[in-house]
Amino acid sequence: MMSDLRADLHIHTYYSDSSMSPQNVVREAKKARLACISITDHDTVDAMPEAFAEGRKLDIEIIAGVELSSEHGKKDVHVLGYGFELKKSPLALKLNEMQDARMARMKKMVARLNSLGFPEIRFEDVASRTRSNAVGRLHLAQLLVEKKVVTSIEMAFEKYLGEGETAYFAKFKQTPAEAIRLIKSSGGAAVLAHPMLTGRDEIIPELVKAGLDGLEAYYPNCSMEVANFYVRLAAKNRLIITGGSDAHGAGKKNTYIGKGYLPYEYVAELKKRIHA
Ligand code: AMP
Ligand code: ZN
Ligand code: FE
Ligand code: FE
After folding, report:
1. Which CATH number is correct for 96-161, 1.10.150, 3.30.1300, 3.10.20, 1.25.10?
2. DSSP states of 163-225 as a string?
3. How far is the CA of 80 from the centre of ligand 4 (A)?
4. Considering the chain, what percentage of its residues have pLDDT values greater than 70?
5. Is the pLDDT of residue 99 over 60?
6. pLDDT at 1
7. CATH of the domain spanning 6-87+176-273
8. What spacing in Å lies between the alpha carbon of 11 and ligand 3's midpoint?
9. From the CB of 139, is ligand 1 less than 6 Å away?
10. Which of the ligands is closest to the CA of residue 78?
């Protein structure tokens, strides 16, 4: 029989593009009666020390996590890493480079917007929206709304920031297979994030060859049919399945911590794939 312990393995903090502190995330997880969570910020693990400390206080299991950016062709592909070695691992070292690339890319995006007639958009005001150097498009979109360049986050992505739009620039150059190898060489498990949003199922076989461990089949606002499709695809490729809310606090309105929770049995399967 399934236990009723639940997990949420995809949550952001204000070290990337959520409004929430790690402590706040762990407290919300407690309220949602979760037994286990993973914080998976974009290209940073800065939230980990505070998350582990608060997890010990509130008796919630915390699994080290990250959501790595990569690109297949011109398409953004997100790879989740779990349980990797945090200190001096290949992954930990690479994150510095990835964040430097994010800062350089954001300077280009701001310069483009300035040249498009929006001198009021300043790099410092974007960068100050996160506690780490993992500055991203959601931060810029929020500033564009605040400065009344656009009327909504959606519009910011549609007009300027979406893949291929005028103020879009790519980040750190890394393929999904490279991101997977980075996680695996640091003792972690690698999971393809929200495959139903990414829409690149055809690359899954080559990612399996690179060491992919799982698919994020359970994702909020996605139908049971779609989830079951990925559950079957995972089984076919001997992959585990994971799930999480992708909660961003006030940064994303259509989800919250504990939405689309994962039964704990799947966490046990995930842990078997972790070697750190
Ligand atoms: P970046 O990693 O800087 O390229 O930004 C990607 C992040 O921006 C995603 O993880 C989302 O949090 C956010 N994002 C991307 N597209 C949209 C969209 N259309 N509306 C709202 N947020 C988005
Ligand atoms: Zn995000
Ligand atoms: Fe993502
Ligand atoms: Fe995410």
Report:
1. 1.10.150
2. TTSTT----S---HHHHHHHHHTTT-EEEE--HHHH--GGGHHHHHHTT--EEEEE-TT--HH
3. 9
4. 99
5. yes
6. 54
7. 3.20.20.140
8. 10
9. no
10. 3
